[in-house]
Amino acid sequence: MTTVPIHDAASHGTTKKVVTWREYKAAQHFRNKEEEFDGVKLGMWLFLATEVLLFSGLFCAYTIFRLLYPQAFANGSSYLDWRWGGFNTVVLLISSYTMAASIRWVQLQQYARAQANLLFTIGCGGLFVLIKFLFEYTPKWSGWFFFLDPALSHYPDSGQRALGGLFHFVDGYGGKRPGELFSYAFSSDPYEHLWWSVYYSATGIHATHVLIGMGLIFWVYLRVRKGMYGPTHYTGVEMAGLYWHLVDLIWIFLFPLLYLIH
Amino acid sequence: MSTINEHGQAVKGDALVIQPVASSFDEGDPHGFGKGHHHGHIIMSATTLRMVLVVLLVFTVATVAAAQFEMWAQSFFDIVLPRWVNVAVALSIATVKSALVLLYFMQLRYDNPINTIVFLFTLFAFALFLGFTVLDLGHRDTIYSYKAGEVTPGGLGLNRRTGERNEAGEVVTETVTGSIVAFARQKYLERLATELGDMELAREEFARREAIFRHSHGADGHGPSVSDNNHSRARTGLTPDLYDAAPAGHGDGHGAAGH
Amino acid sequence: MASIDNRNANTIGAAAGHGHGGGHHDEGSYLSSRGGLIATIWDWATTIDHKKIGVMYLSAVLMMFFFGGVAALAVRTELLEPVRNPSEGVVTGQWLGSFLGVESTNIAKNNQHYNRVFTLHGAIMVFMVIIPSVPAALGNFFIPILIGAKDVAFPRLNLLSWYIYVTGSIFGVLAILLGGVDTGWTFYTPYSTTTDADQMRVVYMVLAAFILGFSSILTGLNFVVTVHKLRAPGMGWFDMPLFVWAVYATSILQVLATPVIGITLLLLIFERLFRVGIFDPGLGGDPVLFQHFFWFYSHPVVYVMILPGMAIINEIIPVHAHKKIFGYRSMAFASLGIAAVSFLVWGHHMFTSEGELAATVFSALTFLVAVPTAVKVFNWVGTLYKGSISMTPPMVYALMFLFLFTIGGLTGLPLATLSTDMHLHDSYFVVAHFHYVMMGGTIIAFVGGLHHWWPKMFGRMYNNRAAIIFALVQFVGFNVTFFTQFVLGTRGMPRRYASYVDEFQLLHQISTVGSYILAVGFTGSLAVFVHSLLAGKKAPQNPWGGLTLEWHIESPPTTHNFHKEPIVHHGPYDFDTVLPPGWDPEDYPVPNAREQAAAYARAAHSHVGHEKH
């Protein structure tokens, strides 16, 4: 697409030369690359609109069920640890900052810094998902705690271990699952399984978006490394950034709604 | 909109705006149609970005602190705040935070206004969606009060798939009457009874474990709190008349009695 | 100023007078093949030319229309006779059972066949035919040309959305091949969560609708950016053809409404696979919540279906009446108004299931829809008034649309009225109403648009007389089929039933006969098009005398549409001041063509080459 084959004398074959930002011309149906950039950005914002409305269904389900069954939601929220949620919020906010910074570095042609920032952003996304799965989903779903989980000390040890002692089992803690799969014995409101349905749907779809965003940023990182972006052409970085900020935006609302209500 | 700084560069707020040089007359665009549509490339200043991050982190701390404070005030001083306070505080802070992300990280402040319009339309559609749905499902009883009743708290029951298959390869199901929450209690108690060989012992063990998980809510971040009829809060006790301390007998505890 | 005018003359002249070339690089028609069969197939499969993608959509949509139509005929054939006692030898669904290769005399089983076939009809027609028909097929082909662009804003995304459409359709067909789905096209819970619980077909069908939604979103997004960014110099917002306005409004709806069906269907898949319970009353969920989710999308989508139909009529009527459209701005704003109102009225699909408060509010709001819609109908009629009407096939379709759509719209009013809807809800009255709007409106407009642009798309004329005759056959068949259903509905025939009481039999039989007439009409139209492709006369540049940009270029267009970036000097419907480009009245003798041409020449004499008015 943006590569043109040229003859490479050294390797005696055709290789693909990367079009750098200096050589980048707009696609033939746009007037110039500023128009193209604006158009792509508008397209991206329309796509973000669809993302917001995708999550609107989950927020709507949340609102309705919280309105109808407030106690179930208050109880459900109390099973979540705001410290993990808060930590993950901070992780995402910082990653949003590094993402914005990487656009700035690309514009200023500081490519090493831009790449470092992009990798750091991907790392933050990974940390977010890791915490979500290791310290939140797994124990609540199954009762298996990661051995470093500080919450372990609050519960009696059942003595069961898995994966060479990496995971400890706490009998009775697990089973906080959505809908039909629900099997936690110590709930006190008859609608608590609905809380978990909303919780897993919302955070699960959000976590999927984090993973997609990480992939997108990695793709952009590779292109930055090839020198395809510069002060007047950095469309890909900007678009990946917008996507990443939106994922952050959704979490900014999910965090208080899920972790801080009572 | 933008002004010129001391280096002769166009700035808008504190962001640098790079405008492509436009000739006075563009032959391919005699109506000036293409002009004024793009807003150049914006380079955010590093200070702005850092300041925004710091403010966002401060607001994150604030929202957690507000929630903790509300709970502490309630449990320590028995100040019962109206339910909407919690929601209003949390969502106001979240709105401010998201506005900062939108305006600075996503550059809406410096950008072509069309993108802001797109986003506002999205929020408008969302508001309609939420508003009308709540108008219906939150007010089923406005005209006929009997329409607010519920048949069985926690659901009508279902054939729950156990996740196993029998010899014929068919999915094995078990019948859940009423709430699956009550069903889960019953199943756990029955498991304990099988392990311990005695129902009475199982009830005692159940109550003991229940106390552990109730009181360890502190480990999950929330302190113990009380609840009353007008106020919804995380509860360590049971819904009155809904269950006994441990389920009594076989499944007769999860009726709608008194609810 | 002189240079601008030269440029204009050059652009228009190159296209009009000299055909190919005109000093520019030698481009062939977009249809001309490059290389052998394999190369041609590969060229089409990887094309990013909006015209080829439009044609690919068109063929896919027509194929799906055929399948959906066969299902409709099966439904109508089944309803020739009501259920009989098995001992009498004929039971409901037996005919359908043998059609599907599973014969049985078990009434319940056979009723299920009926349910599956009408679900098949509904799901195919809505998701795979009507929604993509005009925007994705004709819109893809003509939106860039109408605004003077070389292509849509994101050509690769455009190709991707075609492949997504195909993938979605394959999932839909897979669900059908595995035995079909009997939930109805609306997938209401708890039907959709409980029927065939251990089977994957419902999941496949829901997944199909989910994937098709993606295709719809990407197409809509593409068009919005195209309209914003790629209009030719001189084409301001109010110089755009009204087709573009209506498709623009449609695209906004697609972008804002479709994601909600995305999350709804995703939750429905979760519901089926994991029983998360959000919609399942067995787990304390709320099935009415599903209906809200579903109709928040599916009501706007009703306008995604009808707005492009109106878009086509906007083009056909002024061109074939050779008259400036009446109330251009009100037409443009009516399109946006319909789009806006569509988000406020979804609850009128749920009058019997939602609470009374919401039903009252939704009923009051629903009447708002009538305002912009009526503005449009009045404007069309106002355009026809004292126009110089050529009874060409597209015009016949436009008049059919006016007649049928008005009936469809007016019968919407008793359905919007809460008290009457309580009686008519889920009856054949509703079925007849939405068929008048969706089929009499959108499909008829789509076929009319196909007749209007066929010469431009494929460079061939068709037999006008045959086209008009088959249009009339469709008109008769349509009314015989569906007008009887209004009567059936008011008498109490509920929809989605495989059987009925004996006194309805005559009306049902008339309706079935009507559907066969309709089938003959559509088959005839297909034959007209096939004949045109094989033996049609070569189409001139501007057979009907239109003024919009597609009539400034060759039939069929070259790969890049325009040899030079066009500069727009006149409005899309300035028939009073501008001579239609490249139009030779001898090419296509309309009744008063000569007089019209003379009048144009007189009027245009003092205007050509000047600024737009």
Describe what this molecule looks like in 3D.
The complex is a heterotrimer of chains A (262), B (259) and C (613). Chain A is mainly alpha-helical. Chain A has six helices and five strands, in the order E-E-H-H-H-H-E-E-E-H-H. In chain A, the strands form two sheets. A three-stranded antiparallel β-sheet of chain A has the order 3-5-4. Chain A has a two-stranded antiparallel ribbon with strand order 1-2. Chain A is elongated and about 65 Å long. Chain B has helices at residues 46-77, 83-105, 113-137, 180-196, 199-215, and strands at 3-4, 10-12, 15-18, 41-43, 157-165, 171-177. With 259 residues, chain B is an alpha+beta fold. In chain B, a hairpin with a 5-residue loop joins strand 5 and strand 6 (171-177). Chain C starts with a helix and ends in an 8-residue tail after the last helix. Chain C has a single domain (2-16, 34-602), classed as Cytochrome c oxidase-like, subunit I domain (Cytochrome C Oxidase, Chain A). Chain C has helices spanning 2-16, 37-45, 50-78, 94-100, 107-146, 155-177, 191-194, 201-229, 242-274, 287-321, 328-341, 356-366, 370-384, 393-410, 412-416, 418-424, 428-458, 464-491, 505-535, 593-605. The model of chain C is unreliable at 1-26 and 606-613 (pLDDT under 50). Classes of the chains: A mainly alpha (262), B alpha+beta (259), C mainly alpha (613). Chains A and B meet through helix 1, helix 2, helix 3 and helix 6 of A and helix 1, helix 2, helix 3, strand 5 and helix 4 of B.
